[in-house]
Amino acid sequence: MAGRTGDGFELMARAGQAAWRELLARWQGVQRIVVVCGPGNNGGDGYELCRHAHESGRDARVLRIDAHAPRSELARRAFEAYREAGGRVAGLARGFGGAQVVVDALFGIGLSRAPDEASAAVIEAINASGLPVFSLDVPSGLDADRGSAPGAVVRASHTLQLLGPHPGLHTGQALACTGTLALATLGADAALAQVPVAAWRLAAGDLRGWIPRRSRIAHKGDSGHVLCVGGDLGQGGAVLLAAEAALRCGAGLVSVATRSTHVPALLARRPEAMTRGVDGAAALAPLLARADVVAVGPGLGQGPWGRALYAQALASERPLVLDADALNLLAGDPRELPADAILTPHPGEAARLLAVDTAQVQGDRYAAAARLVERFGCVVVLKGAGTVVAAPGQAPRVVAAGNPGMAVGGMGDLLTGCIAALRARGMPAFESACLGALLHAVAGDHAARDGEAGLLPTDLLPWLRTLANDGPRA
Questions:
Q1: Pfam family example for this protein (predicted)?
Q2: Residues 45-100: pLDDT tens digits?
């Protein structure tokens, strides 16, 4: 744990005690514990935990390599207290034999480089142990701000964040390393803690009451008119998914502008959508004039037809939600957009928009979202594990919902429709993006209750409707 002020050892003692209580609550009845300690304050927290375990009569010991002897003053104090209590310290060669739980107290939140060779070997040994792993503050090797790992990283079963939540633990590579998450504030002054969870993290419980239900005297015009533009030849399903999501999320009217050949199939599938065959920009103009929000991109293509519709939509001065090929066209001809436009790129599309590779985007998803906001001047929804929503003048949000089953073609088209519907219902652009991303992710979690493999975008549609109705009467 870094950033301690005042009586740092008292705070370290609280951290060790909180971690010990968390371990007992998580692994009830545990008797044999190995704590792997590093050289800094995170290692000091580990010594304190192991002292409590030893004094409680558990078979507890510290493992460390010579390079990880305590270096900070606080860690040395914790080590001495542990030794005075009769605690044991062994080298890595002693191994994890007989242990029931391994505690990872190697590195805290301050690590921003790849672990050295010796530390990487310790991390790999922890991962290879096959035992449950309890990480203190952050899995060692993981960047707590970015959510990426520049080298070897502990794969934890459970992580206890100390003082405050760490943004990086909710997005990108972190989601494969942290296991379940818990938080211990240690009773510290708010100035010591990071941004409270509610300020940037969006979870399923935040949906309740967020979307007001319609008034008893509502009519369809009150809930807005969404126009979905896309569906080049062979890609009609993409724009249909966006339209269906817009309808299920409460838009009063939904129109679809697509290739004429797709009209019969779309009408057969979803007669509630007002589907029009559009052969070019001139035919799109009257549809744009009637729309409150334009969602453009799903199945649009990048040929002459798609380019013409894209250009017409951007010139319409209507609120925009841009996805898929609309983003690829924007990457080819970057321009600043209206502040209330909403971009919904996945990491590959974000990389093209920023002219970098996907690894750079994933290496720091918060920074990538911020760069997109700076470049295009509008709201950005950076999709993926731990979706990040950013906008000019707003603190970023991260969506703590969703699952790997949603990694299938068409899910992004649904998200486009969700966001467009909420925008059409009168919500500001940033709020629509945050709420739409959360609604989509939580619907995915409900739909995945029967299993993630084989999950389809259409499986989310009933849940979108259910979740969109969980609010007070307007």
A1: Carb_kinase
A2: 999 999 999 999 999 999 999 888 999 999 999 999 999 999 999 998 888 989 99
Give the confidence band of 29 by pLDDT, cuts at 50, 70, 90: very high
Pairing state between β 379-382 and 388-390: antiparallel
Closest C-alpha among 288, 278, 228, 281 to residue 256: 228
The reported pLDDT for the residue numbered 6 is 44
| H or E segment and range at residue 133 | strand 133-136
Is 158 a known ligand-binding residue? Answer: no
Q: Does the pTM of the predicted model rise above 0.70?
A: yes
**Spatial distance between the Cα atoms of 468 and 209, rounded to a whole number of angstroms:** 9
Q: What is the mean pLDDT of residues 424-440?
A: 97
Domains of the chain with bracketed CATH: 8-194 (3.40.50.10260), 205-467 (3.40.1190.20)
Residue found by looking up tokens 């009845």 in the block: 29
What is the SS3 string spanning 266-281?
HHHHCCCCEEEECCCH
- Does 417 appear as a known binding residue? no
Which token pair is 131?
A: 């035992």
- Asked whether residue 387 is marked as a ligand-binding residue, the answer is yes
Contact by Cβ (8 Å): 109, 136:
no
Q: Was 386 annotated as part of a binding site?
A: yes
Q: Is 275 annotated as a binding residue?
A: no
What the block records as the tokens of 155 is 């794969």
Is residue 413 marked as binding? yes
Is 346 annotated as contributing to ligand binding?
A: yes
